[in-house]
Amino acid sequence: MYVVGLTGGIGAGKSEAAKMFAALNVPIVDVDVISHHLTEVGQPSLQKIADAFGNDILTAEGALDRSALREQVFSSDAARRKLEAILHPAIHAAAVRQLSSNSAAPYQILAIPLLFETDRYRGLVNRTLLIDCAESLQISRTLQRNGMTEATVRAIIAAQASRSFRKALANDVIDNSGSIEQLQEQVAFLHKKYLAACLESE
Question: Is the whole-model pTM more than 0.70?
Fold first, then answer.
């Protein structure tokens, strides 16, 4: 099972790159998707979060108010650690199950924003790929996409590893400062590289 860990800061373009790999028939295991599933109505993790943070983080329908939770979590290191303690073990277990189910593929992508911030996933990947761009681009893209305040986006960036730290650890780096076409070209190049690496490892 050959796994490439795909990471990048908020707004860097990790999700867009993952879609491009998926279009090349590469299985994608995305911890953000797993996290969203685990926090849906009726999931045990959602009740644990409500118990820890109060019902203010729930909508009138009992769903998770992600904006309200985000405001709490990124204004306090203690709150962020509390949420991570609830979610991370369940997310990790689900990611391992999904990776195992894709074992017939030549290689697969594990998309995880906090790959370099935790040791939890290092043992699952053979290689790491960083999607990188300037912080100003991260902020502008996120503001256009999510409707967050700039202060919240900056708080999220501050809570993540620095660009220089990620670049020092990554095996491969895609510069996503340009066009969608330029991103596509870099993804296609690395796809061929990873397929070749899989053949060499057999």
Answer: yes
